Amino acid sequence: MNGVYLTRAETLAKSLTAATARLFLLLLLLPGVALAAANPHGAPGHARAQKLIGGLEHPWAVAFLPDGDLLITERGGRLRRVHQGRLLAEPVAGLPTVQARGQGGLLDVALHPEFPTQAWVYLSYSAPAAGGLVTAIGRGRWQDGALQDWQELFRLARATDSGHHFGSRLAFDRKGHLYFSIGDRGERERAQDRGDAAGSILRLREDGSVPSDNPYVGRKDALAALYSHGHRNPQGLIVHPVSGALWAHEHGPQGGDEINLIRPGANYGWPLVSYGREYGSGFRIGEDSAAGMSGPTHHWVPSIAPSGMALYTADRFPQWRHNLFVGSLKFATLMRLVVDDQARVLRQERLLEGELGRIRDVRQGPDGYLYVLSDARDGALYRVSP
Fold this sequence. Notes:
About 5% of the residues lie in helices and about 40% in strands. It is mainly beta.
C-alpha cells in the first residue's frame, strides 16, 4: 500500500479502539478499498508549489542542462534559457522556422541521451508547408548558448490548414532510439492510414535514420518510421526507466482520454475505438473495443485534457516513488497516479487543483523535485514537493 494512504489511515486509527483500528487498517489494505476511504474519486491531495520562473508566454516543455541551466519552449516559437536561476531576455538563436497557430507552435524539447558529449537538442514544432502546417522534428547542436547546424529529421508529408492536434512529445529509449508523437491533425480518418504519420507514434535513430527492426520496415503499405497508429492527439510520452516500455497518453474528445502501453505495430483504434463522444451531439464515437485493436490501460470520463507526463523515480520523496504524474489542462491540476508496471492505474488523486492554472508539462528534475509548467500568456515554472 502506498505510504501516503497508510499514513492517513494510521492517523485515523489512533482515535479508534485497538480492535476496531486493526479491522480498519486491514480493510484499507484490501484492493479497491484504499481509494474509496483515503481519496475518493480522485479527491484533492496535498502538495506545495514554489514559483521559480515567471514571464513565460505559453510555455510548453522544459529540459535540464547538465550545468544547471534550463531550456524552456514557448509555443509562439521561442526557446528560452534559464541561466543561474534567471530567465535570459534574448531567446536562443538557431531555431528553424516555426509557425504557431491554434495548438501548434514550438512544442517539446529533449536532449540527446549522451549530452553533452553529443550536444544535440531536439525539438518538435509546427512548420509551414504547401497547404497549411505540418508537425516536424529536428535537432541543433548546442554551442555557446545557441543552436548550430540545424537538421530537420522528420516532417509530416501532408499538410492541413487546421490548427488542431499536432502532438507532439519526444522520448529516447536506452538504445538511443527517438520516439515522437503526431496528432491526427483534426482529420480522424488519417489515424487509421499506416501510410500517413498523422495520428501515430514514430521511431527513428538519433540521427533521423530508420531502425531496421521497426515494425513496418519493408512494407509498401506503411511508413518505415511508423511504430504505432490509431492515436488521436498524444501529448504525453515516456520510456519506463526500469522496464524500458513506452507509455503514452492522448486526448480524447468529450471523454476518452487514454493511457496506453505502446507496443510495436499496434493499432490503438482511433476513431473506430473510443470512450469519447462527439462535440455538440454527444453521440458515441466508435466502440469500446474491436478485434485487432489495442485498448487503453486507463481512460478518463469526463476528459481531464492530459498534457505532460513523468514517472517519479527519485529518492527525495519516497512516498511518490514509482507514481505517475500527469498534468491536466481542463481541471488545472496535477494528477498523481499509483500505477503498476503495465501502466494500469490503481489509485489517483488531484494535487494543486486550481492553484497554478493549466498544467502543460511535468518533469522530474535532476535534484529529485517535480517541475511543472503552467500554460498561460504569463506562464511559469514551478517546483513541486509533497
